[in-house]
Write a structure and sequence with these properties.
The chain is about 25% helix and about 30% strand. The protein is an alpha+beta fold and about 90 residues long. It has one domain (about 5-90): SH3 type barrels (Roll), CATH 2.30.30. A four-stranded mixed beta sheet has the order 1-3-2-7, with helices on one face. The protein has a three-stranded antiparallel beta sheet with strand order 4-5-6, covered by helices on one side. A hairpin with a 5-residue loop joins strand 5 (about 75) and strand 6. The N and C termini lie close together (about 10 Å). The mean pLDDT is about 95.
């Protein structure tokens, strides 16, 4: 999976533009993503563990290695208030 995704620094995410459409169409994949987000949040808060977030902005697929600090209904929040819209995330691990 990683070969399709370009590595990006967390600090550069704030400069990206995100379309409104979801990258996932399958209901089961969306449920899996929600579970992965909750697991990443627990790992970030309890163990300060980094995870890889595979996502897509308006230009290309990207991956970032970071710690998830918080989650809202619409966004995954990283350090320094950097946000990735949940509907643009493929996978977290």
């Amino acid at each position: 999976m990683t070969e399709d995704f370009k590595i990006i620094d967390k600090e550069d995410i704030a400069l990206l533009k995100f379309p409104k459409t979801d990258v996932l169409n399958d209901v089961e994949e969306i449920k899996t993503r929600t579970g992965e987000i909750n697991r990443a949040l627990s790992l970030g808060n309890l163990e300060h563990s980094k995870i890889k977030i595979f996502f897509e902005d308006s230009e290309s697929k990207k991956v970032v290695d970071t710690t998830v600090w918080a989650v809202t209904d619409k966004n995954v929040i990283l350090k320094q208030g950097v946000m990735i819209p949940i509907h643009r995330i493929y996978k977290l691990f």
